[in-house]
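Hi all, long-time lurker, first post. I run a small reading group and we've been trying to get comfortable going from sequence to structure in the token notation. Rather than ask abstract questions, I figured I'd post a concrete chain and ask someone more experienced to write out its structure so we can walk through it together at our next meeting. Sequence below, copied exactly:
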Amino acid sequence: MGIAVNLQSIKSTLPQNVTLVAVSKTKPVADLMEAYNAGQRIFGENKVQEMVEKWEQMPKDIQWHMIGHVQTNKVKFMASFVSLIHGVDSLKLLQEINKQALKNNRIIDCLLQMHIAEEETKFGLDENELASLLASNDFMDMKNIRIVGLMGMATFTDNQNQIKKEFNQLKSIFDYLTKQPETQNLEPKTLSMGMSGDYKLAIESGSTMVRIGSSIFGGR
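-- Answer (accepted) --
Happy to help. Here is the structure in token form:
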């Protein structure tokens, strides 16, 4: 099965309101171009350096999503072109994105990463941290970022009930977020949850953006 075929078969299962991010980390440009030629325009990378290299080589109508954990010292390398940063999990990181966006005369869209899984290793904010971040003057002062939604990862488990519970929890936090008064830097409309293994469950729970890699490009 080719990449184009995989892509079409996944797209045919997605509702209209769900955006597909093709997770292209570790894959060669030739594979990405196959997906591009099949109509895919949104690619997700988890290492800034790799994303920069691919951005330099590929057509400029691609939206690049940074889906991995971001180190503050790497933000400057992608600030000129990144479309959406998924894994924003601290005020410090947000301030750095704001600073680099200002230097590039841009407003960079971000998703706040919520910690919903039971594993301690996953990054993310809890609900109290989210509320205090949004209420802080530091956040209000940022003019070059826009929080457009939330992202979260479920526990890596075969227990579908647990995954569903975690997705539902994220959806309820997202609903809380959408009830906040919109400001210039808060326009929540994207809920990024669900990957190759659990995206159908995520969509049932209200996801509007899924991150799918191995089902498109094959295993690592």
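A couple of things your group might point at:
Strands lie at 19-23, 42-45, 63-66, 84-88, 108-114, 145-152, 186-195, 209-212.
The two ends are 15 Å apart (CA to CA).
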